[in-house]
Automatic annotation (TrEMBL):
Cofactor: L-ascorbate
Keyword rRNA-binding: no
Family: Belongs to the P4HA family.
Pfam family, one: P4Ha_N
PROSITE patterns: FE2OG_OXY
Main location: endoplasmic reticulum
Signal as UniProt keyword: yes
Protein's organism: Oncorhynchus mykiss
Compartments where located: Endoplasmic reticulum lumen
Signal peptide: 1-22
Protein name according to UniProt: procollagen-proline 4-dioxygenase
Keywords tagged on the record: Dioxygenase, Endoplasmic reticulum, Glycoprotein, Iron, Metal-binding, Oxidoreductase, Signal, TPR repeat, Vitamin C
Length: 581
């Protein structure tokens, strides 16, 4: 029986100013249920094994007892049966006890296990889930430039559990890519399967099958000399292979033709170097900023200069003297200067996060995007996550979070979309996109997404950054914090610089909460005071001291309150302090 290693899964809760039941692999939150389901099935399997062992022990005991008895009875049957008790017990055994043994043998202890399997099977992932999880690993491989061996040996940053891929796992990965005509990844994973085979690792799949897929995929990548060398290895292993001979002749004829066209008589032998990441160029796809986007996800190309850093500050934010924030203002830190992006510390408590996740988890459905041509909501490969929508009336926690967002931003959530909770699955991502609508017909009906307030509800061990390819910013998840930016200019036009993406989660579970502000009519303008956030007209934070490379250091709450009273009376001069990276 083939053994399949369950693929590690990885997840953010988003709150954007604006479900469908879908694949299991798109949400770590729902995949965690499968962990407990599998544990229950393992226990059921152990109980079945124990029942089978008990049954077998009973049958074995019968066999041993009867073996001794028949050895004595067959030595001299007449003498044995001359004893009336032996004659009686023979009648009893054949009439009653052998029937009981027959019933014991016919008992099927597997009924309970099969019944348990049947109940849980409806929640099992299907073939699309397995394929989606495999493609997610390939997406992580591309984004973070990880070779197949890193995945195979579990060499990932931030990992807490050892997880390896066997020869057969690597073969299945390669076959998934091959069936999608993705020969680039088929080569990488078939080569890894071959490498582990050559190292002596146990396997079920044959080397001939691996070489068959690998040689043809290499040919599709345009490397004829190596395709010929691999096909010759295949022929040497299995001379009767139905395709190998024909492929070899075809490859050799094609190579001869190419050499003739290039006026070359002899082709240099195929390189002995193994195929690895970078041997072949990855094909281009539909996303023009793919390299910039993935580079930012890896922390490359971030345009944080010394001049820009000097314009970033930390401060206490009281929401333009909002009564609910006067005594306990928010700690606000600049993440970027233009467009202005800020992060709020302690925006959500641990108990609030757990409650929100509890409310959202049963409702998680595959996240959708609006088709730019039809305007219809649909699923897309460039958004791999599940989301749920929560209303303030459902729980006091949701109402409290909505009120806090209003207090911090000075915007109303009355014209906002519901609180959107997002949970990312294996390789979960949302490729570069705009939060604001560019369809005039939608804006006329619903208004537009004025701003985005994004709560991070989990830490992520590796990956999962929010990146802005246009100006080279990368913002990393930090549990309990929130980031905020405006999607529109004062004129109402969209700020195209805010095109952003959620990088794939390499290791960890990313939950996010997204709230977006609508501006459906002229009345909404009265709810907006951009100066409240951009004009920095509120209390700045002060620092006792700085540590280079350390986060902002804030004054004690008591001292901060005293400073605020002094500031309002005009007796204390406020000076802005820079945020240290």
């Amino acid at each position: 029986m083939r053994k399949h290693l369950s693929l590690p899964a990885l997840a953010l809760v988003c709150c954007c100013f604006w479900g469908i039941q879908a694949e299991v692999y798109t949400s770590i939150g729902q995949m965690t249920d499968l962990i407990y389901t599998e544990k229950e099935l393992v226990q059921s399997l152990k109980e079945y094994i124990q029942a089978e062992e008990s049954k077998l022990a009973a049958v074995k005991s019968w066999a041993n007892k009867l073996d001794v008895l028949t050895l004595a009875s067959t030595s001299d049957p007449e003498v044995y049966l001359a004893h009336p008790v032996n004659a009686y017990k023979l009648m009893k055994r054949l009439n009653t006890e052998w029937s009981e043994l027959e019933s014991l043998v016919l008992q099927d202890p597997s009924d309970g296990f099969i019944s348990n399997m049947t109940v849980h099977r409806q929640y099992f992932p299907d073939e699309e889930d397995e394929k989606g999880a495999a493609k997610a690993l390939m997406r992580l491989q591309d984004t973070y430039k990880l070779d197949s061996e890193s995945f195979s040996k579990g060499k990932l940053p931030g990992v807490h559990h050892n997880a390896i891929l066997t020869v057969d796992d690597c073969y299945d990965m390669g076959k998934t890519a091959y069936n999608e005509a993705d020969y680039y990844h088929a080569v990488l994973w078939m080569q890894q399967a071959l490498r582990q085979m050559d190292a002596g690792e146990e396997h079920v799949v044959s080397k001939a099958d691996v070489l068959d897929y690998l040689s043809y995929s290499v040919y599709q990548m345009g490397d004829l000399p190596r395709a010929i060398e691999l096909t010759r290895r295949l022929v040497a292993i299995d001379s009767s292979h139905q395709r190998a001979g024909g492929n070899l002749r075809y490859f050799e004829k094609l190579l001869s033709k190419q050499l003739k066209e290039l006026n070359q008589e002899v082709q240099e032998p195929a390189t002995e170097e193994p195929i690895q990441l970078g041997t072949y160029k990855r094909p281009k796809d539909y996303l023009p900023e793919r390299e910039i986007y993935e580079g930012l996800c890896r922390g490359e190309g971030v345009k944080m200069t010394s001049a820009r850093r000097s314009r970033l500050y930390c401060r206490y934010h009281d929401g333009n003297r909002n009564p609910r924030l006067l005594l306990q203002p928010m700690k606000e830190e600049d993440e970027w200067d233009s467009p202005h992006i800020v992060r709020y510390l302690n925006a959500l408590s641990d108990s609030e996060i757990e409650k929100i996740k509890e409310l959202a988890k049963p409702r998680l459905a595959r996240a959708t995007v609006r088709d730019p041509k039809t305007g219809i909501l649909t699923t897309a490969n460039y958004r791999v996550s599940k989301s749920a929508w929560l209303e303030g009336e459902e729980d006091p926690v949701i109402e409290r979070v909505n009120q806090r967002i209003e207090d911090i931003t000075g915007l109303t959530t009355q014209t906002a979309e519901l609180l959107q909770i997002a949970n990312y699955g294996v390789g979960g991502q949302y490729e570069p996109h705009f939060d604001f609508s560019r369809r005039p017909q939608d804006i006329m009906v619903d208004g537009n997404r004025l701003a985005t307030f994004l709560n991070y509800m989990s830490d992520v061990e590796a990956g999962g950054a929010t990146v802005f390819p246009d100006f080279g910013a990368a913002i990393y998840p930090k549990k309990g914090t929130a980031v905020f930016w405006y999607n529109l200019f004062r004129s109402g036009e969209g700020d195209y610089r805010t095109r952003h993406a959620a990088c794939p989660v390499l290791v960890g579970c990313k939950w996010g909460e997204l709230d977006g502000e609508f501006n459906p009519n002229s009345q909404a303008a009265s709810n907006l005071n951009i100066n409240q956030l951009i004009g920095v007209s509120h209390l700045m934070c002060f620092f006792d001291y700085f540590l280079v490379g350390a986060p902002c250091m804030y004054l004690s709450h008591k001292l901060q309150s005293n400073l605020h009273r002094n500031v309002t009376s005009g007796s204390f001069h406020i000076k802005k302090y820079k945020k240290e990276d």
